Here is the input.
Amino acid sequence: MVSKFSHDTNQYLEALKKKTGDEKFKTFVRGEKLSMGIQLLKKGDDYGEPAHKNGEIYYIVKGHATLKIGKKDYEVSPGMAMHIPPKVIHRFYNVKKELVFLFIFGGLDD
Here is the structure.
């Protein structure tokens, strides 16, 4: 059962796979103190993010890629949680397989 308190991320993911264009993410919790969503990147994608005013956490669900946070590179894989501090530029690249991750913002996902 899906309500405003529960979310079927598998359903969101299937919809993202059918979506055309570069922006393949779904924010399903959006509030002043917390926002959360799911994102899909395809093999070979290079996806950069501007520095946000709030911190962010990525939880890797599926796939492998390199995540650059500031000037440091991290190899990410399923089960890893990555913290991006406020106002730090970050990007995924070298996506080896389809990459699925949850994102959580401390505040609105601006």
The chain has one domain: 9-105. Strands lie at 25-30, 35-41, 47-49, 56-62, 65-69, 72-76, 81-84, 90-93, 99-105. The two ends are 29 Å apart (CA to CA). The longest strand covers residues 35-41.
